[in-house]
Design goal:
Elements: E1 5-8, E2 21-24, E3 47-54, E4 61-63, E5 66-68, E6 86-93, E7 96-105, E8 108-111, E9 124-131
Antiparallel strand pairs: 1-2, 3-9, 4-6, 5-6, 6-7, 7-8
Length: 135
């Protein structure tokens, strides 16, 4: 079972209504949120994936990934082993504090070779991934 999301602006905000987002409500749980969108191709165009993450409490182990899934994915049975095209986002666990970038090609995952640190404080941070048309 997945944890339950709640809507909140958190403890620190400028405009509560404008800055309301989703928050995990239980520690040590997995969470999932999916949304379908039309199929697309970034052939000849750059793809930009961008979102914000705010850890409202000190975090010692957890991730805040976005996964771009193939068309026709099964949202009801989505889990950590479901296939994806892109996985991107911060991962904090013990001494590991990095931003994952994983691309899938021909059913094989390819991890970025460089280490990109992620933020571990309680402020809002913008994460941006740009995949150029030429990869």
């Amino acid at each position: 079972n997945y944890g339950v999301w709640e809507q909140t602006a958190g403890k620190f905000f400028g405009d509560e209504e404008d800055q309301t987002g989703v928050k995990t409500s239980q520690d040590a749980r997995h969470y999932s949120m999916t949304a379908a969108f039309d199929s697309f191709s970034n052939e000849g165009k750059d793809l930009v994936v961008q979102y914000t993450v705010k850890h409202g409490q000190k975090i010692d182990c957890g991730g805040a990934y976005i996964k771009l899934l193939p068309a026709g994915f099964d949202a009801e049975n989505f889990d950590g082993d479901s296939p994806f095209h892109v996985m991107f986002g911060p991962d904090i666990c013990g001494g590991t504090k990095k931003t994952h970038v994983i691309l899938t090609h021909n059913e094989e995952n390819h991890l970025i070779k460089s280490t990109i640190p992620c933020e571990t404080d309680q402020l809002t941070h913008l994460y941006t991934l740009v995949i150029h048309a030429d990869n």
